[in-house]
Structure to design on (265 residues):
């Protein structure tokens, strides 16, 4: 069998994965805090038919050699943490990190922690600040009895204040901290706009918003997806044409096999 059949098949498989990645990016174009994926590819092992440097004569050697590649495969899928645009919502519980650096920390039902860029927070029946899935913000923020919701304010440094009953001055009820990682691309995406710490990401680094390299908080804003429709559409066209080209290679290889078989007739 011709080697090109399997080589081209690996190319088609790779481009199918690229289309899957693009489709996921496009489906999340309006997901708060979503970070687009990028598929990285690498070439496969090469078969050495003539080794470079092999002596050709007593006084000369072969300069380049002969190598035959065996196609491509997916090497990695990387999250691109470029900051998305901020959208004003007017909702006092919405918060956005005005920088690429910083995640909100979320307490999950199993006691572990997740991290998110989605700051579309809400208040549950216990007056606790939670995500859309009902998971608690960490450190927890709970509005005290008698708090006036209209005076819930969050400073750029994460200080949370509310007015209680007829008090003139607001009362500080908590502090929102942000967390960063040495290698955010190593975080594990687990769905629901959440990431989990891994060995590759390194341990969490806690900090105050607006300080220590962390982004400042913007109340009343949410961060939109960083997916750019034009870029994804161009990538889709390139992937489609590459898929078609690889399929043509298979067709051509099949035609060559057919010609070789027909020679005996």
């Amino acid at each position: 069998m011709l080697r090109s059949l399997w080589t081209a098949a690996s190319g088609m498989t790779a481009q199918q994965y690229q289309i899957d990645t693009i489709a996921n990016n496009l489906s999340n174009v309006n997901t708060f805090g979503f970070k687009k994926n990028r598929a990285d590819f690498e070439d496969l092992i090469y078969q050495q038919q003539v080794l470079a440097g092999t002596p050709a004569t007593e006084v000369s050697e072969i300069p380049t050699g002969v190598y035959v590649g065996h196609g491509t495969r997916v090497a990695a899928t990387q999250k691109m943490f470029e900051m998305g645009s901020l959208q004003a919502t007017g909702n006092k519980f919405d918060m956005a990190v005005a920088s690429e650096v910083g995640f909100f920390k979320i307490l999950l039902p199993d006691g572990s922690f997740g991290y998110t860029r989605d700051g579309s927070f809400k208040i549950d029946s216990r007056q606790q600040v939670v995500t859309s899935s009902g998971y608690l913000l960490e450190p927890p923020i709970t509005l005290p009895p008698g708090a006036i919701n209209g005076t819930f304010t969050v400073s750029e440094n994460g200080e949370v204040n509310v007015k209680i009953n007829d008090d003139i001055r607001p009362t500080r009820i908590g502090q929102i901290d942000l967390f960063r990682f040495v290698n955010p691309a190593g975080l594990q995406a687990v769905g629901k706009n959440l990431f989990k710490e891994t060995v590759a990401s390194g341990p969490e680094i806690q900090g105050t918003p607006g300080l220590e390299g962390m982004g400042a908080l913007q109340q009343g804003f949410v961060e939109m997806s960083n997916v750019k429709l034009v870029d994804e559409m161009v990538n889709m066209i390139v992937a489609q044409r590459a898929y078609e080209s690889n399929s043509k290679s298979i067709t051509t290889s099949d035609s060559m096999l057919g010609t070789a078989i027909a020679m005996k007739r």
User: Anything to note?
Assistant: The chain has a mean pLDDT of 90. The two ends are 19 Å apart (CA to CA). The chain has two domains: 3-80+228-262, 86-223. The helical segments are 3-27, 229-262.
